[in-house]
Amino acid sequence: MADRVVLAYSGGLDTSVAISWIGRETGKEVVAVAIDLGQGGEDMEDIRQRALDCGAVESVVVDARDEFAEQYCLPTVQANALYMDRYPLVSAISRPLIVKHLVAAAKTFGGTTVAHGCTGKGNDQVRFEVGIGALGPDLEVIAPVRDYAWTREKAIAFAEENAIPINVSKKSPFSIDQNVWGRAVETGFLEDLWNAPTKDVYSYTEDPTVNFLAPDELVLAFEAGVPVSIDGRKLSVLQVIQELNTRAGAQGVGRLDMVEDRLVGIKSREIYEAPGAMTLITAHQELENVTVERELARYKRQVEQRWGELVYDGLWFSPLKDALDVFLAKTQERVTGEIRLVLHGGNVVVNGRRSTESLYDFNLATYDEGDSFDQSMAKGFVTLHGLSSKMAAKRDLGL
């Protein structure tokens, strides 16, 4: 088997041109690997055939939708992971899965090198290459767009000069990455922080005012931290995400406009749409409020932030991430129950909770008749709780 390069293939201009370019520069055959993560758009068979038409010796499409939902989106829900307290890691969690299949394809097809289409300014180059280093440390990596300063104009010229069969007539002003977990949009006029997003930026969500007079109420059920049904209908994790994308998206839920701290040290303006992701995380957080003990919940919030930073920074396959996964799995054992919520005007509002694992005791919480809380214990508790602060204050005041 000839020495080969395995290319992460999207079907777009850059990776299509890269097939021919890599072949000429390296003298190696190119195997194109496209991953279906529920991104929609073009038929995946058309993408597979395009890679062959552009010169790939092998073209593979992997249907990883359920794998993505269950092994990447679900841990993100269970970690309530929001980078900078806002971003549900739409692109970040897809990269390790793509890496996993690239490395597997390299073993299957005799690849010694992996190629990706990332630039040198973004986070994805790190996610791809650190991931490849963890799963296939013997593999080399090349990044034509970054390493050879490709521009769209150069790619178009190369395609025309070499009769590469790809339509480059339609030019989007944006750079877009999307999957079933959400959609990320950047560049173009969005690079001016004062410019508001226009209607054409959005695809997964309606304007929040469109269905404002028709709020959508639903009941989302979890078993041990896993979403299992909507309104009593049993669904897979993928189906839950897909349905919430549709229903929450119709209410304008999950729109984010943020200036983000990239790993490479620059700030970038990003527009995200993640209706299903934000609905799931909101519901899961609320169920944890009911079922997770106070000290565990407090510590888990610290772990959630660190977990999200590790994933954002491309360290999905790292010892610390592996260890935190074990902790997070333990915290989910009692996260079972139902959350009722309303999707309306771009917001997710929880208005009902119930669980067989609930730590909420009505008789302890009530202020009405039947109160079982012994208030006489509180005076001594308050005195002891504040004793050390009181002693320090007396010292500092010379009392």
TrEMBL record:
Residues 4-165 form the Arginosuccinate synthase-like N-terminal domain. It holds the Pfam family Arginosuc_synth. InterPro entries: Arginosuc_syn_C, Arginosuc_syn_N, Arginosuc_synth, Arginosuc_synth_CS, Arginosuc_synth_type_1_subfam, AS_cat/multimer_dom_body, Rossmann-like_a/b/a_fold. It catalyses: L-citrulline + L-aspartate + ATP = 2-(N(omega)-L-arginino)succinate + AMP + diphosphate + H(+). L-aspartate binds at T119, N123, D124. Its EC number is 6.3.4.5. The keyword Nuclease does not apply. It is found in: Cytoplasm. Its main location: cytoplasm. ATP binds at A8, Y9, S10, G11, G12, L13, D14, T15, S16, G117. It comes from the Bacteria. Residues 174-391 form the Arginosuccinate synthase C-terminal domain. GO terms for molecular function: argininosuccinate synthase activity. Keywords: Amino-acid biosynthesis, Arginine biosynthesis, ATP-binding, Cytoplasm, Ligase, Nucleotide-binding. PROSITE patterns: ARGININOSUCCIN_SYN_1, ARGININOSUCCIN_SYN_2. It is an enzyme of class 6 (ligase). Homotetramer. Belongs to the argininosuccinate synthase family. Type 1 subfamily. This is Argininosuccinate synthase. It comes from Rhodococcus antarcticus. The gene is argG.
